[in-house]
Amino acid sequence: MARALLRRLLLFIPVLLGTSVLLFMAGRIATPNPSTTALSIFATPEAREQFIRERHLDEPLLRQYLLWVKDALQGDFGRSLVTTEPVSEAIGQALPITVFLALGSLILTAVIGLTLGSIAGLRRGGAFDRLLSVVTVVGVSVPAFFLGVLLIHAFAVKTSVFPAGGYVSPSESMSGFFESMALPWVTLSIASICVLARVTRARVADERVRPHVRTAHALGIGPGRTNLSYILRNSTVEPTTVLGLQLGFMLGGVVLVEQVFGLPGVGSVALYAANQGDFPVIQATALLAMLVFMATSLVVDILHILLDRGVARGV
To answer: Where are the domains of the chain?
Structure first.
């Protein structure tokens, strides 16, 4: 196991290196002269020259890249070209909101997706199984932004059960926090719940007809113990892998969901920066998303190895 994880970690190095090069070069191509974005059109030539010197833009491209990497490793991504605020501070303020959004959606996905898929798999061919098949197809097909608008209309405009948007910090009001995050959590998790439910259903249904399960029934082992010990436990590997990969899908969805519900998270920061041509912020958020996705991939690999060995050993 240690050797496999070491190989994965070593593979991350060229991926991170390549990503950093692409992000840096994209920034230079998109904004060859950042002073035009950062400074007023009435700025003097002296002010523009000072701006270029302070950001080492007059130095060779390779040195600029090395300085950028050095600062990034220290958590310094420079300053926003639009607000002049340190990029790390802007992301640090928005990051908790995105983390709460992603974790809440992931928990909903795991609890509901695994539960529905397991029930459908254990009752393959039944009414619940057929109903779930239809619902999951619809759930995967509906775009997140459209679903968010429907939920706002149903639960905020028509019934006022939840707020239509905005964010309440847990430190301000725990009940207000859950109310403000309920609709975004559902919106972001619906598609992932449907995917996980279908994968879990297929895996459980396949495990249910394996020889060792029929042997357990022949030996007189009760259905409850058979379902838990011989079917559900042996069906955990693939759904766990899919659950981890869904976090990567959610990273793409947070931008839309945060916009629909007015959440000031990292997705909103990145979208605003893209509209303003604020490439230091875009670079930092893109690199952060890559790091999160790579870390998730590593955790999924670890869980896959542990669960696969656990199932094989019957532990």
So the answer is: 2-73, 89-313
